[in-house]
Amino acid sequence: MAAKKRGMRRGLTAYGDEEFSLFLRKAFIKAMGYTDDALERPIIGITNTFSGFNACHRNVPDLIEAVKRGVMLAGGLPVEFPVITLHESFAFPTSMYLRNMMSMDTEEMIRGQPVDSTVLIGGCDKTVPALLMGAASANMPAIMLVTGPMLTGNHRGERLGACTDCRRFWARFRAGEIDQQEINEVNEKLAPTAGTCMVMGTASTMALCTEAMGMMLPGGAAIPAVMADRIRNAEATGARAVAIAKEGLTPQKIMTPRAFENALRVLLAISGSTNAIVHLAAMAGRLGIELDLEAFDRMGRETPVLVDLKPTGQHYMEDLYRVGGLTTILREIKPLLNLDALTITGRTLGEEIDAAPATIKQDVVRPFKNPIFGEGGMAVLRGNLAPGGAIVKQSAATPKLMQHEGRAVVFDTLEDLAERIDLPDLDVTADDVLVLRNAGPKGAPGMPEAGYIPIPRKLAQQGVKDMVRISDARMSGTAFGSIVLHITPESAIGGPLALVQNGDRIKLDVANRQLELLVSDAELEARRKKWRAPKSKAGDERGYRKLFLGSVQQADRGCDFEFLAPVPTTRTPT
Ligand code: FES
85: which of 144, 345, 434, 530 lies 20 to 30 Å off by Cα? Predict the structure, then answer.
């Protein structure tokens, strides 16, 4: 059998003469000043996801330098290359719309270039899942390095964090509690350093889940972006990337069903972002693994919320880092974990937990027996309004609204919501259920984070802080409220959400995992006959938009493109 091609000999450009292809490749790369000795080393790719629009990745140049140092100290040749980068506030219509494109870019660049392993540098919400989805599909050795969370800001003596406090202060501004000058002041302080949002938003959640899954060096998730430890972690990641190239340690060997279960356990224990369900489903899907929402819900009933971080708690990521990071959480939920799962170090998760420094006395991660919330942060709902499932982050909701029946106040689209939500004559009370539709994967498109429907201004001004809100959209992990998300199937493809009318009664019963539209089957059938799919919009017929609309799957399949996932072969959790 022919020896596996490595380094410069890998994936030669097709000229019909392999030796000529290698000769030509070397001729060109020598224009970069490399020697033959350097080019014979294991070649370690580094994804450069820096962009002037991505403040969460502001430290990527420093990380690349440190990764390169680690690679060279371990005898490899580091070569950085660009892939698409995404920042939450600089991606229209929403970063989720572009996540799959980033994953395809990553997959093809890993596969199409002569790298023996790749250091995936990401951080902002969609970048970590996109990089891991791409690496999983390419199935070449790869290791994740995150940019790390920001440090907290300060406003008039109060600690601030993006973007939970962005929403909190904006709500106060809308309610007239603070003036224009103060909101301008706050705007300067919410994102005070390089790095990702420092609350338990999607970036922090994905970083911790990735570490739990074993695709990152232990301890890597929580180190703040600006700390020297972050740079040392990057150097160590570079060194490990050389080793996994030699060992052939591919994502398929690490991202197993048992590793995904560990990630889901952590997601529940940290009361992480609901977005992580979608991203983990997409990542698993790339490896032929189907995330079973019912089993996830069962896991939720036995996994308590232990981490006291905003938006549901009081601390920030730098506090979690100070008390030992993910290991402190893993120790508390150890009996629930698959300790034999392999990690990127070549050791098991159990071995890594045992090898980590002892846990100190601390108040950021609660003991298993004294949780913040007795069940996992999330529940999976079913019912005639969500036959394919819906998600509610119960730990971030108002407890009394988790059993609620109210009158539907329906917004047809995001534009309709923007136009009418603040009208003084909007027919709405605090007991109503706000409904937003056509905000799902195809409907918006891209399933934006619009599920955090604002409280109508006239109610906000009366002091209403929370209402039941339901949609086929997503919600930022930094947000909170009694919000039902990811209703599947979405309304744009004829899901039952499309049939709701103003004044219908909706019943939410989280204890029994139900979301019901209290309308008779006969009436719903009559409405269904009259239902028409939304008209296509300008731009739907060409380019990436056409690919997206024709291929994107529903939330339960991670909103991945159907042609990127193999047929599911394994269900997890079991
Ligand atoms: Fe990048 Fe929050 S905007 S992590």
Answer: 345
Range of lowest pLDDT (14-18, 143-147, 150-154, 391-395): 14-18
Question: Ligand 1 centre from 410 Cα, in Å?
Answer: 30
E strand map for 375-437: 378-381, 390-393, 403-411, 433-436
* Cβ count within 10 A of residue 441: 30
92-100: average pLDDT: 96
Higher pLDDT, 23 or 376: 23
Which pair of structure tokens corresponds to residue 42? 């294991």
User: Can you tell me whether residue 43 is helix, strand or coil?
Assistant: strand
Q: Is the pTM of this model over 0.70?
A: yes
Say yes or no: CB of residue 127 within 6 Å of ligand 1: no
What are the structural domain ranges in the chain?
Answer: 1-34, 379-534
* Best mutation site among 127, 196, 317 for ligand 1 pocket (most ligand atoms within 8 Å of CB): 196
Helix axes 95-112, 127-138, angle to 10 degrees: 30
CATH 3.50.30.80 fits domain 379-534: yes
Q: Which atom of ligand 1 is nearest to the CA of 162?
A: 2
Ligand 1 atom closest to Cα of residue 123: 4
User: How far, in Å, CA of 107 to CA of 287, rounded?
Assistant: 13
